[in-house]
Amino acid sequence: MEVHWFKDGLKLHETHQTILKSFGKTHILVFVNVAYQDSGVVTFVAGRSKTSSRLKVKASRHCPPICPVGVKMDVDRPNSALLTWVPAPNSQTSTRSIFVLERKEVGSQEWQKCFTTETATSAEVTGDSVPCEGDYRFRVCCINKYGRSGHVEFPKVVHLGEEMTVK
Questions:
Q1: The pairing of beta strand 158-160 with beta strand 134-144
Q2: Could you give the CA distance from residue 113 to residue 139 in angstroms, rounded to a whole number?
Q3: C-alpha radius of gyration, the chain, whole number
């Protein structure tokens, strides 16, 4: 049986933003990354049968948070690093957000969460808080109910454990 999809009277073809699939008597249409201007009438035609529905895309009222800025690493104390950051200047203050600090041992691909806070804009990481002696990188991001910001990496690598050195 011939099956066709239309939007606002124009026949749809599969693209990176329009996915068309059929499995027996099941037919699926997926729109990827729709925006407000994608609203319209979607029509499905199978043989002589036809059905239409209005696609209504509401404009997003809230955006994910913005990356923290001004990241700095202070290594004045032995075997510790004081990491500081500043919330983005135009970040939403009415939405509860948390900062997430992550660490990664140099040579590893996996980031590990090591600190979360709603209010603090700094964290001290000591040699006894890491799983083993090594060289570590750090990054921070912001999360709220609308999503996650990008990550911002701190500019230095620090050796934590028995002895600390800055590279």
A1: antiparallel
A2: 10
A3: 25
Q: What is the pLDDT along the chain (167 residues), one digit of tens a residue?
A: 789 999 999 999 999 999 999 998 899 999 998 888 889 999 999 989 999 999 998 876 677 888 899 999 998 888 899 999 998 876 656 678 899 999 999 999 999 999 999 888 999 999 888 888 999 999 999 998 888 999 999 998 999 986 545 55
139 burial class (0-12, 13-18, 19+ CB within 10 angstroms)?
buried
Closest residue by Cα to residue 117 from 100, 103, 129: 100
- Give Cβ neighbours of residue 142 (< 8 Å, ≥ 6 apart): 65, 66, 67, 68, 87, 88, 91, 97, 98, 99, 100, 148, 149
CA dist., res. 52 & res. 9, Å (int): 10
